[in-house]
Design goal:
Butyryl-CoA Dehydrogenase, subunit A, domain 3; Butyryl-CoA Dehydrogenase, subunit A, domain 2; 4-stranded antiparallel beta sheet; 3 domains; Butyryl-Coa Dehydrogenase, subunit A, domain 1; 13 helices; 4-stranded mixed beta sheet; alpha+beta; globular
Length: 378
């Protein structure tokens, strides 16, 4: 990877975005904003879309902004560091719309992409299944052809906001058996309000319901629910995961906690040597990871598929994000006075969520296997 600067015309977006977020989030407490991209607010998504900032990199012909990947990087950086509740459009804008524009039919693009850009249509991704762990290729959910289209049966789990989304892009088996691995897998668009779909939210340690378990029982889908060519679902997913693993959300999940801790340290009026060292360590790591993420953004902008590079950023970024609550908790334990309640609440939330950081987007073991194969080590 090379050091990749943000072009001036894209950096110029930062001011207007920051001003908008400052006004919109003025009354939102820090411990709520610490949820960053897991905060779900359709009103916020529509307000952001009205500014032209949902689907920023998608073609103007489809309702997007027609901007570069660097413009999107600036937008995401500001959303994450402000703690904006972007989950209502996050998956559709980041993954579903680009997937449909690359592999979908003209009718699929017309039906879904403009709605995503307006903040009116939300998507989730159906990959993981009960009992499969991180073995994505062991998909057992099956869609069979019928005279009317497809009949879908099976289950998905750990689906981010699957209980609130309008549609799912589901990886399912359309031929062969689970032992056939990636062969015979396809992706289908599933209307989550269709007959036969049942959704159960999964509550996490922080008391939130970001995830869902979804069951399909004889769900009938039209023939045009298929994305691309039957049997090519695996290659589509591999390309799609580069978008999921490469963004700033893989390095900024704990940023609001760092900001709140630094605010507390500065407010005391004195800064110890240990605090200076810890702050320097956290900010130096962030600077390196940010430059790596920017380099991946440059590759995406050049229409490359940086699967290994994105995976490296995701793995290292997760290690960094997970280290932050432990480091700050250790520091606070050495303090003679109790820290502010807002800081403790933010710490409690991030510490509770940190174990999930190495699950979403692929577990650490899976990621390192991808890296090893990419480097020719296995």
């Amino acid at each position: 990877m090379t050091l990749t600067p943000i072009p001036p015309e894209d950096e110029a977006l930062r001011g207007p975005i920051r001003e908008f977020l400052s006004d919109y989030l003025a009354a939102t407490p820090i411990e709520k904003r610490a949820r960053t991209w897991l905060g779900y607010d359709r009103d916020f998504t529509r307000a952001l879309a009205a500014k032209g900032w949902v689907g920023l990199t998608l073609p103007k012909a489809w309702g997007g902004g027609g901007r570069s990947q660097f413009a999107r990087f600036v937008l995401l950086e500001e959303l994450l560091t402000a703690g904006a509740p972007a989950a209502a459009h996050w998956t559709g804008e980041r993954q579903s719309a680009p997937l449909l524009l690359t592999f979908g039919t003209e009718a699929q693009r017309q039906r879904f992409v403009p709605g995503i850009c307006r903040g009116e249509v939300s998507f989730c991704i159906g990959m993981s299944e009960p009992g499969s762990g991180s073995d994505l290729a062991s998909v057992r959910s099956r869609a069979e052809r019928t005279p009317e289209g497809w009949r879908l049966n099976g289950s998905k789990i750990w689906t981010t906001f699957g209980h609130r989304a309008d549609f799912m892009i589901a990886l399912v088996r359309t031929s062969g058996e689970a032992g056939d691995r990636a062969a015979g897998l396809s992706q289908l668009i599933v209307d989550l309000n269709a007959a036969g779909v049942s959704r159960r939210p999964i509550r996490d340690l922080a008391g939130d319901d970001h995830f869902a378990e979804i069951h399909f029982e004889d769900v009938l889908l039209a023939d045009d629910a298929l994305i691309g060519v039957e049997g090519q679902g695996w290659s589509q997913v591999v390309a799609e995961l580069a978008f999921e693993r490469s963004g700033p959300e893989r390095i900024y999940s704990s940023t609001l906690l760092v900001d709140e801790w630094l605010r507390y340290v500065r407010a005391r009026g004195t800064v110890t040597a240990a605090e200076t060292i810890l702050a320097g360590r956290l900010l130096a790591q962030l600077a390196v990871l940010r430059n790596m993420s920017l380099s991946v953004t440059g590759l995406l902008g050049a229409s490359e598929s940086p699967v290994v590079e994105a995976t490296v950023v995701k793995d290292l970024g997760t290690l960094y994000e997970q280290s932050i609550p432990d480091l700050i908790a250790d520091h606070l334990a050495s303090e003679s006075e109790a820290p502010p309640v807002t800081l403790l609440r933010t710490l409690d939330y991030v510490a509770a969520m940190a174990p999930s950081f190495s699950l979403r987007g692929g577990t650490r073991e899976i990621l390192r296997g991808i890296i090893a194969r990419g480097l020719g080590l296995r």
